[in-house]
Specification:
The complex is a heterodimer. Chain A is mostly helical. Chain A contains 14 helices and 4 strands. Chain B is globular, with a radius of gyration of 24 Å. By secondary structure, chain B is an alpha/beta fold. Chain B folds into 3 domains: 235 residues, Rossmann fold (3-Layer(aba) Sandwich); 158 residues, P-loop containing nucleotide triphosphate hydrolases (Rossmann fold); 70 residues, no CATH class. The chains are: A mainly alpha, B alpha/beta.
């Protein structure tokens, strides 16, 4: 040891007694919190609206068009709420699009069978939700008790459910001729489409379920630390099954909405829907590795993508250009998120000063 | 002081056994815990402590034997059963969920709710009371646990144990992640718990610690009880080591070999700085020298090490090996120049756990064993086998997955990796974390041997005694500032702590 660098420590302020709440400026804390993350999404959404208003003017910026955007968002939105739960718990559900297609086929066939009876529209809804729940149950059982990675289990369901839908429908489109059903789903309430109301109700219910119930709490815990959740006495496997059932049910609700919008059931409904759904959930700020989920973020993510589609359509841009833009947005959003996350992480690490007792 | 007469045992374990896939983890363990005592359970890595803990917390079910709780025979089919009886466990890998708040973690699995709807305010209020009871009223129940230090996460774990009607808390090496100040606080909390009549089963490697906190000791060796309910005050340290290892461990630290006066400077660090983490540091390490970094957790010791290694990019200053300045912020540059790092988190940063020993040993040198891109596994295995023999690595099978080895043997794999590599500079971050007493002596001897062979070594450890015992020279670091650079023989543990405390006071 040749050189000696002995240095007297510079006087410094004592570490705050309460080091659990590091004193940073409130604005930074806000940006790091969930409200801040959502603020970024709101800004992105407002920017999109500005772009729409500038390029298309009144054609874009009117109530009717805003409702069109929401109507477009509603089906993807409902399914995204369900998938947000699965992803928050560290899983993934690739099968929601196929399952949605399957529910439209089965429900529309029910309507053909029972065309005459009056209450059959309720039965159609029940059948659609039941089929969705059943598909979710199978997903959940295979993942939780069969120990199959959720990616593979739900990929199998994606392929299988689509195939089953084709077999059942004979690849033909079933027209829904049940008037009551169509009347209910194509109605407006307070000037707003029932489809949008369903989205609102599912989103509010989803927010409550995730943030204010034991079910939501346990979902976050399982995604954040599976072992800790198990050791805390949470029935992890059972809970995981229920999450996939939940996603399946939202796919069923989506199926009902699809039937209402298109008045027909076919095996191609919901094709590639899972990609839009996962994109919206991830852009919204739910972590793909689990442990953090945000319903508000998912809703904003869905709105961003549906607004984008609308802006592009208003400007008569090719769907290929749309797809390209959506891909770009997805990557940029995730890159921004990671920047935020690591910055937060680093500041956090720097705060890891030990308590000196 | 604690009185053990006339007390009915809270927990009685008799002759429990447990087998996993052909391995007999427990071959007959007895344990008797009294209410309000601190009962220490000791044993080397692989002795069966973890299996015993998991059996008592309902994670594993014993194959045979009897467990009695307050005199009644019981069975524990799952974690919930143990929790309901009043047995809570604080695991070594902190079992908290980072994304949830302090209060949410405390009540995880038994949330305050009616009909599934959470009572947020009530949860926070009860959590605050529990934290106050643990002397951590300043910890806010709504803080996200991911932002807390390891010590505070442990407090959350402890509050969780108390949030149920707990009569016994099992603590699995609670001090392993704490610095000395935090350990003092842990002990204070443990004493408060026992004063309330709660029994604490305290698992630890550290003999000094057990003498401070324990009432009675039980020892396990190779899945069997070798001692039961010994009084801490009447049992000598040597006796405990003998019970744990079955042999006498005399001198833990090896004699240092004097550094040749003409030994060349191998590693030179000149005014290296990482703004926001540590101030400029300068020092040199010569061939055959062991330099120790002493300081508390959070002193930025590891950050300095990682910056030398290029894993973090220095704001200013240089690192040179044998006179050649390294490109900053580049790990490949450091490795090519001959710097090896054995990281703090062995399992997550150092080893590929499911790969066999030999592939882990050749991880930084496997290109040498390849011809035209084709790996010659036979010669890889041969190289690994040589190291296994030289380091007395157990089991001596190069094809065993790294995961199945004890902490000490995993550490030997990392040392073997750099031995094969033949690096002139070796950075060791917490080389004995999770390594038991017997294996520690072997690791120390190995490090000393590497130095004697001319390697320049830096050792970082949160155990000041270890740094002082092993190193030739010591840097005392506090909060990113080097307080002094001194010969290890010229300072003792108190001296280091005095310096650090003075540095912090100001």
């Amino acid at each position: 040891m040749s050189e000696q660098k002995t240095k007297v420590a510079e006087p410094r302020v004592d570490a705050p007694a309460d080091h659990s709440t590091p004193a940073t400026n409130p604005f930074q804390n806000f940006l790091k919190g969930s409200a801040g993350r959502n603020l970024g999404l709101v800004i992105a959404l407002v920017l999109l609206l500005v772009v729409g208003a500038v390029t298309s003017g009144d054609r874009f910026l009117n109530l009717e068009n805003m409702l069109t955007i929401l109507r477009y968002a509603s089906i993807i939105g409902v399914v995204s709420i369900g998938v947000t739960f699965v992803i928050t718990a560290g899983g993934i559900d690739l099968s929601v699009g196929s399952v949605l297609g399957l529910t439209t086929v089965v429900a529309s066939l029910t309507s053909v069978q029972l065309a005459a009876t009056q209450s059959s529209w309720i039965l159609m809804v029940v059948v659609a939700l039941g089929v969705g729940a059943l598909a979710g149950l199978i997903n959940g059982l295979v993942v939780a008790y069969g120990n199959v990675v959720s990616f593979i289990a739900t990929l199998a369901m994606l392929v299988g459910a689509r195939g089953l839908a084709e077999l059942i429908s004979g690849r033909s489109t079933q027209i829904v001729n049940n008037r009551d059903f169509l009347q209910v789903l194509r109605a407006d309430f307070l000037g707003v489409s029932v489809l949008i109301w369903i989205f609102v109700i599912v989103a509010v219910a989803g927010w409550f379920l995730l943030n204010r119930t034991t079910f939501g709490r346990r979902t976050v815990a399982i995604g954040g630390n599976l072992e800790a959740a198990r050791l805390a006495g949470i029935k992890v496997k059972r809970h995981m099954v229920s999450l996939y059932v939940l996603a399946g049910v939202t796919a069923g609700i989506g199926g009902v909405m699809f039937l209402g919008r298109t008045t027909a059931g076919t095996s191609t409904h919901g094709l590639l829907l899972e990609l839009d759904v996962i994109a919206a959930v991830v852009v919204g700020g739910t972590l793909l590795i689990g442990g953090r989920g945000t319903i508000m973020g998912t809703v904003l993510g869905v709105l961003i993508f549906s607004t984008l589609v609308n802006v592009f359509t208003q400007n008569n841009l090719d769907t290929s250009v749309q797809a390209l833009a959506r891909g770009l947005i997805l990557v940029v959003a995730v890159l921004l998120q990671q920047r935020f996350a690591t910055r937060g992480g680093r500041t956090r690490k720097a705060k890891l000063k030990p308590a000196k007792v | 002081m604690f009185e053990e007469d006339h007390l009915q045992p809270l927990l009685e374990v008799r002759g429990i056994t447990k087998q996993f896939a052909g391995v007999q983890a427990l071959k007959g363990v007895d344990l008797q815990v009294l209410p309000g005592e601190v009962h220490c359970v000791m044993g080397q890595n692989g002795a069966g402590k973890s299996t015993l803990i998991k059996t008592l917390s309902g994670v594993h079910q014993p194959d045979s034997g009897e467990i009695r709780w307050e005199g009644e025979p019981i069975s524990l089919p799952g974690p919930t059963a143990a929790l309901d009886l009043g047995i809570a466990t604080m695991y070594q890998e902190l079992d908290v969920v980072d994304g949830l708040s302090v209060a949410e973690n405390i009540f995880l699995g038994h949330e305050r709710a009616s009909g599934g709807v959470l009572h947020v305010k009530k949860t926070n209020a009860v959590a605050r009371t529990l934290l106050k009871r643990l002397g951590h009223g300043s910890l806010s129940p709504s803080t996200e646990v991911g932002t807390l230090s390891a010590a505070n996460k442990q407090i959350v774990s402890m509050a969780r144990a108390l949030s149920r009607d707990t009569k016994m808390i099992i603590m699995d090496e609670p001090s392993a992640i704490l610095d000395s100040g935090e350990v003092a606080n842990l002990f204070r909390v443990v004493r408060e718990l026992t004063a309330q009549g709660i029994a604490v089963v305290y698992i630890s490697h550290r003999l000094e610690e057990i003498r401070q906190i324990g009432d009675r000791i039980s020892v396990i060796k190779d899945g069997r009880s070798t001692a039961n309910g010994l009084s801490v005050t009447d049992t000598s340290k040597a006796e405990l080591i003998r019970l744990m290892t079955g042999r006498d461990v005399a001198n833990v630290f090896p004699e240092p070999t004097p550094i040749a006066p003409d030994a060349p400077v191998v590693l030179e660090v000149d005014n290296l700085e990482l703004a926001g983490h540590f101030d400029p540091v300068s020092f040199t390490v010569r061939a055959g020298e062991i330099l120790g970094f002493a300081g508390l957790v959070g002193s930025k010791r590891s950050e300095i090490l990682e910056t030398i290694y290029g894993a973090r990019k220095a704001t200013s200053g240089t690192v040179s090996v044998n006179g050649k300045v390294l490109r900053p912020g580049s790990v490949p540059a450091a490795v090519n120049a001959g710097i090896g790092l054995s990281p703090e988190e062995r399992k997550s940063q150092g080893l590929i756990l499911d790969e066999p020993i030999f592939k882990n040993v050749t991880l930084s040198t496997f290109e040498r064993f390849a011809r035209g891109g084709h790996l010659n596994e036979r010669s890889e295995r041969e190289a690994a086998r040589e190291q296994i023999a030289a380091l007395e690595l157990r089991p001596a099978d190069p094809d065993r997955p790294a995961r199945t080895l004890s902490g000490g043997n995993q550490q030997k794999i990392l040392l073997a990796r750099w031995l094969v590599h033949g690096t002139p500079v070796l950075l060791l971050d917490e080389p004995t974390r999770g390594v038991d007493v017997g294996a520690r002596a072997e690791i120390y001897a190995l490090i000393r041997r590497l130095a004697a062979a001319g390697t320049a070594i830096i050792v970082v450890s949160s155990e000041i005694e270890e740094v002082l015992g092993l190193a030739d020279n010591v840097l005392v670091i506090d909060d990113g500032t080097v307080l002094t650079n001194i010969k290890a023989s010229d300072i003792d543990e108190h001296g280091v702590l005095d310096l650090v405390m003075k540095g912090s006071a100001a």
